[in-house]
């Protein structure tokens, strides 16, 4: 019985800690609210500035505590099949025989 009570207390402590640190659910709700505010502003509809500040302050606090993981777009369009990405390294210089001047020729 003591082991069960200790396990329940441990689980409750972990839940309280997750709730206090801004769980993923909180992060998702605040990010969604920020998206709603941005959409309203982009469409020329009124969006209360105090709400934007409240949401941004909450997200900045979560990020400072490390409660926000990597942010990636979930609806990003993948590149077309067979599309080549830009090379990451520059091309090598041409061979030396291609860069010789005509003055070097004997005839």
Helix-strand blueprint:
Layout: H1 2-20, H2 24-42, H3 49-64
Short description:
The protein is built from 3 helices and no strands.
Relevant terms:
mainly alpha; single chain; 107 residues
Structure description:
- Helices cover 50% and strands 0% of the residues.
- It has 107 residues and is an all-alpha fold.
- It has a domain at 24-68.
- α2 runs antiparallel to α3 (49-64).
Mean pLDDT, rounded to whole units? Answer: 78
Q: Spans of 5+ residues with little confidence (pLDDT < 50)? A: none
The helix/strand series, from N terminus to C terminus, equals HHH
| Approximate shape | flat
Which class do the helix and strand fractions yield? Answer: mainly alpha
Strand percentage lies at under 5%
> Largest sheet at a glance?
none
* Total number of beta strands: 0
Helicity level, as a percent range?
Answer: 40-55%
End-to-end separation in angstroms reads 103 Å
Per DSSP, the total helix count is: 3
Radius of gyration: 29 Å
């Amino acid at each position: 019985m003591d082991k069960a009570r200790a396990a329940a207390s441990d689980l409750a402590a972990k839940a309280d800690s997750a709730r206090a640190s801004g769980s993923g659910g909180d992060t998702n709700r605040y990010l969604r609210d920020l998206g709603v505010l941005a959409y309203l502003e982009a469409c020329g509809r009124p969006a209360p500035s105090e709400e934007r500040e409240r949401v941004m302050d909450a997200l900045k606090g979560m990020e400072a505590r490390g409660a926000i993981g990597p942010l990636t777009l979930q609806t990003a369009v993948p590149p077309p099949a067979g599309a080549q990405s830009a090379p990451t390294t520059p091309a090598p210089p041409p061979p030396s025989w291609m860069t010789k001047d005509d003055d070097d020729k004997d005839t």
